[in-house]
Amino acid sequence: MKNKEIYNYLKTWSEKYKTDLIDNILPFWLENGLDKKHGGFYTCLDRNGTLMDTTKSVWFQGRAGYIFASSYNEIDPNPAYLSASRSAIDFLENHCFDTDGRMYFEVEENGTPLRKRRYLFSECFAVIAMAEYSKATQDKTYSKKALEIFKLILKYSQTDGLLQPKYEPTLKAKGHSLTMMLVNVAVVLRSAIADEVLDKTIQNSIQQIREDFMHPEYKALLETVGLNGEFIDTGIGRTINPGHCIETAWFLLEEAKHQNWNKELIDISLQIFDWSWDWGYDKQYGGIINFKDCKNFPHQDYSQDMKFWWPQTETIIATLYNFLITGNEDYFNKYKEINEWTYKHFPDDKFGEWYGYLHRDGSVAQPAKGNIFKGPFHIPRMMIKSHLLINDILQKMEK
Amino acid sequence: MKNKEIYNYLKTWSEKYKTDLIDNILPFWLENGLDKKHGGFYTCLDRNGTLMDTTKSVWFQGRAGYIFASSYNEIDPNPAYLSASRSAIDFLENHCFDTDGRMYFEVEENGTPLRKRRYLFSECFAVIAMAEYSKATQDKTYSKKALEIFKLILKYSQTDGLLQPKYEPTLKAKGHSLTMMLVNVAVVLRSAIADEVLDKTIQNSIQQIREDFMHPEYKALLETVGLNGEFIDTGIGRTINPGHCIETAWFLLEEAKHQNWNKELIDISLQIFDWSWDWGYDKQYGGIINFKDCKNFPHQDYSQDMKFWWPQTETIIATLYNFLITGNEDYFNKYKEINEWTYKHFPDDKFGEWYGYLHRDGSVAQPAKGNIFKGPFHIPRMMIKSHLLINDILQKMEK
Questions:
Q1: CA atoms of A317 and A388, how far apart (whole Å)
Q2: ipTM value of the model?
Q3: Cβ–Cβ of B170/A108 closer than 8 Å?
Q4: What are the angstrom distances between the C-alpha of B193 and each of B143, B147, B251?
């Protein structure tokens, strides 16, 4: 493909992401998800937006709070976005904290707590919501609250015994999820407030990803390893989640950018991306599959060969980032491939928004638009990030 | 189909189940699953029997202990079966109990505990293993131990606060799983030892199934209801698991038989079966699917449209039971339909045993023979039960 063609292709898509965000995705959630009575967001919506279940995901109060503030900050300063973000944050503050400072996982529509879990992701999403809202409003009280929650996450994740462990003490393992999540949470929070704990956390996570979770002998970033990065030869220890790894890859590039395009960090990120694309890209049907076993045994998760929405959106962001940094046309081609496969199979032309769960061949496995794990997050984040990334790429190409 | 044809068809299948059990299923697990060094069973086996993961499922020590003793008792008094059963039971007794009398969920191959959960299924499977082994050996110490564990299950399930609840106290709900499981566990245990708590437990479970879990307004037996059977209008509360309900249906028929073919119990069971077949049978591709939502919203479990092995085996048993009791040819036709669909798609002609996880259309989703949820249980139990049920049907037809 010639440069001119690449330029035009990207320019078209940059606009498409923006209009899709503003005209399709955000209105779908504002109209069908925003709870005008109790505040906050519902996410259990059927294909046409019908509310299927009034249970509220605490993750999604934070995620929606972040997305609407980020859309306001980066794409369009629409007051409705800011007020939606604030509604989610108010709901979090009024209903989603337990007396120990930790947060619930699910609550009723009026905020009555239903379930608390041993993980810290509710807290992570609350941090990015408050940080982004603070940037939108210049109201520092929110970034300060976010920093307090961030420090609570660190305390709970670093103090043995504070969280009830899933496994007996005999199984000494650690997971990639919180490690990578903390990079992103700290990067977002740092854009709102300065604190040395943020850079320290980012450095610590990067070190663990590089030294413990990356296993060159399998050309893989593993989801679960021993406390010092030891390979655990079980189904769990051999699990590769390619979409997750690719998400980590672009999280690292955001930090590399902050460090004036730190070359070492770029190399690590590209390595993770290249490994994970090779594991995850489905040469037969297209798209990124869910799970692989690094010794090539059949992966035991039911959904291992399915195509979920978020590994695709993360790959769109990562390939654009890679192309921006390297100018390597191979990354552009991968971007084009995953972008077109995604847009061919996920958007719902009739009722708007995207399906979330496809079979391996791209057929729709179930058509609902949301549940407690799918709502306004990965899809709009991809549109915001990709719009901005392409603008950077076009600027670079214009030089 | 004429009676003669039905007779011949059933006779052929009765033999087929027996030879399949003796020549295929049990040898597969004895050769590849039985741990000659530490005792007990591995179940994480690849398609050809290769050991993929040495983690041992505590459920499957009990399940295998039950299956090998039951095969010995009902089909073929092969000493290798008895010793395999004993190996699993010894492993349970030596390694799988915590100091509070409760059991672990996963252990290492040498018995080091890995994970304990808040559910009582490890305990349930230990009970049926010891009960069946006690019948095989006439060694009453095992039925007495089983009864002690049974009483511990009742204590833990009936005493608030003993098990850490999954949900906050605000969500008052109960599940169908343990309720139905206790019917089967008590029926098996009662065949080894008498105790009034067994009949009382069975009656209590039946009453809850009939009054709380059966919801005629949806023609459904629901998986989760309020403490007094209230309908909960969320994704969880609307969940129908047809294979699970059909398993309950034949559990009730075993009790009906014990009560001299109690007519009321038969009617409840047939009602549950008829409802659940209508929800679960896939008219387009055949087989029983995993989940439905009783208000016909899209079910949110990834695997909702997949075909797992065990809903099919439970339906084979239930349809045979129904035909034995009613002589209604419609049940024979349903039996034939599910039996042939199952035998067409699940058995692995090359390496023996059955695949466990198929896509909706019957194609293999992943070819491993076992994991911590699939091992020697539903498939051999179906073969044992179906062989015996058909013999009863043939006897009745010969009259």
A1: 10
A2: 0.94
A3: yes
A4: 6, 8, 19
Calculate the alpha carbon distances from B239 to A52, B174, B236, B292 in Å: 13, 13, 5, 6
Whether residue A357 lies within 8 A of chain B, CB to CB, comes out as yes
Amino acid, single-letter form, for residue B200: K
Spell out the long-range contacts of B158-164 with Cβ–Cβ below 8 A and sequence spacing 24 or more: B163/B118, B163/B119, B163/B120, B164/A164, B164/B118
Q: Which residue has the tokens 């082994």?
A: B133
Question: What is the DSSP code string of B222-268?
Answer: -SEEETTS----STTTTEE-HHHHHHHHHHHHHHHHHTTS-HHHHHH
**Residue reference for tokens 């027996």:** B18
Count of CB atoms situated within 10 Å of the CB of A330: 12
> Across the A/B interface, how many CB contacts are shorter than 8 Å?
92
Q: What is the pLDDT of residues B119-162, one digit of tens each?
A: 999 999 999 999 999 999 999 999 999 999 999 999 999 988 88
Closest CA to B334 of B321, B322, B319, B344: B319
| Mean residue pLDDT across chain A | 97
**Residues composing chain A:** 399
Query: How many Cβ atoms are within 10 Å of B273's Cβ, its own excluded?
Result: 26
Residue B248 near residue B306, CB atoms below 8 Å = no
Does the pLDDT value for residue B388 go beyond 90?
A: yes
How would you classify the pairing of strands B56-57 and A106-107? unpaired
pLDDT in tens, A178-210: 999 999 999 999 999 999 999 999 999 999 999
Q: Which amino acid is at A9?
A: Y
Can you read off the two tokens belonging to residue A301? 């998760």
Q: Is B7 on the interface with A (CB under 8 A)?
A: no
